[in-house]
Write a structure and sequence with these properties.
Helix content is 72%, strand content 0%. The relative contact order is 0.11. By secondary structure, the protein is mainly α.
């Protein structure tokens, strides 16, 4: 359901991967503000013209990197993502919890600075996937009071907010797995769906 990055020309994909990896390597050594496009291109082994053929600036590259990281997280978990079911919804909640947790562990010093970008990218991709699911199942339903667009927005914000709350809890009393199962009924209710099959 998510747009396929692998539809790109292999050379374009490879260049973007080089630039993305260079940025990630530099972020491990420096704060984002001190990293220049020249630093990124030198680390990636490409010239500045190549960089600008792919990204308008380092912020666009960062945005792309966040989007790609979350897309990979979803794709690694949702093997049957083209079909809505409660297990896929639970796996989606779990993916967001663990993505935010891993991002915090890897980029703790700079993560607060990137929180708005992360939130925007995650919610956007959640919305896209959930909307596709809803359009699939609502074709056979006329009893849902909200539009698929509204329901997808509510669910994507709910999932992100719940995952962020779980991540921020100082003493995580629950595993991400247990938390995803606990909040599944809340998210399913946002979608106007029963929390249990049947």
């Amino acid at each position: 359901m998510l747009p396929k990055e692998n539809k790109l020309d292999p050379r374009v994909r490879r260049t973007r991967q080089l630039l993305e990896q260079a940025l990630l390597d530099l972020l491990a050594e420096h704060d984002f503000q001190s990293i220049s496009v020249q630093d990124i291109t030198a680390r990636a082994g490409v010239n500045r013209a190549t960089f600008y053929a792919h990204f308008s600036d380092k912020y666009a590259l960062l945005d792309y990197s966040i989007r790609q990281a979350f897309r990979q997280e979803i794709q690694s978990r949702l093997l049957n993502s083209c079909e809505f079911n409660l297990e896929n919804l639970r796996m989606l909640i779990l993916a967001v919890c663990e993505f935010l947790d891993q991002l915090g562990a890897r980029c703790a010093p700079v993560q607060r600075q990137f929180e708005p970008l992360v939130e925007t990218q995650v919610k956007s991709q959640l919305h896209e996937l959930i909307l596709a699911w809803l359009e699939q199942i609502n074709a056979n339903r006329s009893d849902h009071p909200a539009s698929a667009e509204t329901a997808a927005t509510a669910a994507s914000w709910a999932i992100y907010g719940l995952a962020a709350q779980w991540k921020r809890s100082l003493e995580k009393k629950q595993t991400a797995e247990a938390y995803a199962s606990e909040v599944l009924p809340l998210v399913a209710a946002n979608l106007g769906l029963p929390a249990r099959p049947g």
